[in-house]
Write a structure and sequence with these properties.
The chain has a single domain, classed as HUPs (Rossmann fold, 3-Layer(aba) Sandwich), CATH 3.40.50.620. Helices cover 50% and strands 20% of the residues. The chain is of the alpha/beta class. The protein is built from five helices and five strands; from the N terminus they run E-H-E-H-E-H-E-H-H-E.
Length: 143
Amino acid sequence: MQLFGKILFPTDFSNQSNLALKFVIDLAQQHNSDLIILHTFRLTGEGLEDEVLLNAKRDLEQDAINKFKTIENLHLKNANIGYMFQSEVGFISDRIISNVKTHKIDLLILCRSIQDKIMERAEKDSTCLSKKMTCPIILVPKS
């Protein structure tokens, strides 16, 4: 039964994210869902030259690609689900909201480390991710 056509799982490649990924893949398999794994990063470089920032962005993107390949080899190649990886510059909550809309996400799953990052920004920002979501959210507790 396909209850969730598309699942979005933001990752920071932490141990918490890696542990939660197993749950996410199991759920995607149970519901025959496609999985989008999202990694976001911030670039701050006040006073840095454009070339330095561009090189830093390339390095962060390459690092994410390498980590995605590891996830693919360890967990997804034989999982029998559709999947894709996204790596984007920006605040995690903004990138989640954008991807939910763009990809018509049916379920958002957040591990504890991503929840903490969102809450850090929420304290500084009056906008709340949960108020802007158009899909259910599952919060995976710390394992």
